[in-house]
Amino acid sequence: MSKPFSEACENNKEPILAVLHDVILSSDRRLLEIGAGTGQHAVYFAPAFPFLEWHPTDLSPAVPGMSMWFKEARIPSIQIPRKLDVKKDDFPKVKFDVVFTANTFHVMQWKDCKAFMKLLGHRLREGSRAVIYGPFKYNGEFTSSSNEEFDQSLKTLDPLSGIRNFEDVNSNMTKNGFELVHDYEMPAHNRTLVYRRLKFESHR
């Protein structure tokens, strides 16, 4: 098996890192990455936050590939990658200050996106942050023709996948106890949504 490579990860790693510098605090201790893919993001981001344990996860088929990246990089803060399917698995039983996911919402079916946001609400506590990167529609409209074409290509593989409406994501995050802190405009018609967990009782 050859080491996997994602051109998208290579292209977006610097602007995402700039956002993470805004989001991650020196007091943070653990970050959970959902959908770590090839592992390129973890290898690039983790050294910028040496005080932070980086916990990469993905579906089972991705784990061997990212393990190759981690074995080669030898970054002490990157933890052993774990299989995690948001449809049926829970987060590791430790406290996470930040949960980061990139380019997953448009690949997952909407019911799985909602399952993930519900899991965030159950497992994160006050002050923790969720960082969601990818393309989104606003008021039901694509932000570019390229995103519309991308959405169509996604639906040829899975009719239930596709670029999500920001308003739907925001509504579900709010329902699960989060407030939107920032909506960053990113290159290539992408966004980074940053949410902060409110008090546990606030959404009951």
What does this structure look like?
By secondary structure, this protein is an alpha/beta fold. It contains 6 helices and 9 strands, in the order αβαβαββαββαβαββ. It has helices spanning 7-23, 40-45, 63-73, 110-123, 145-157, 166-175, and strands at residues 30-34, 53-58, 82-83, 98-102, 129-134, 136-137, 164-165, 178-186, 190-197. Strand 8 and strand 9 (190-197) form a beta hairpin.
Question: Which spans have pLDDT < 50 for at least 5 consecutive residues?
Answer: none
Helix and strand run? HEHEHEEHEEHEHEE
Mean pLDDT: 96
Fraction of helical residues: 25-40%
- Please give the domain count: 1
Q: If you compute it from the alpha carbons, what radius of gyration comes out, rounded to the nearest whole angstrom?
A: 16 Å
Count of individual helical segments: 6
- Choose one word for the global shape: globular
CATH domain topology: Rossmann fold
Count of extended strands = 9
Order of neighbouring strands in the sheet with most strands: 3-2-1-4-5-9-8
How would you characterize the largest beta sheet?
7 strands, mixed
Q: What is the percentage of strand-forming residues?
A: 15-25%
Shape-level CATH architecture: 3-Layer(aba) Sandwich
Q: Which CATH class?
A: Alpha Beta
Structural class of the secondary structure composition? Answer: alpha/beta
Spell out the CATH superfamily: Vaccinia Virus protein VP39
The N- to C-terminal Cα distance equals 48 Å
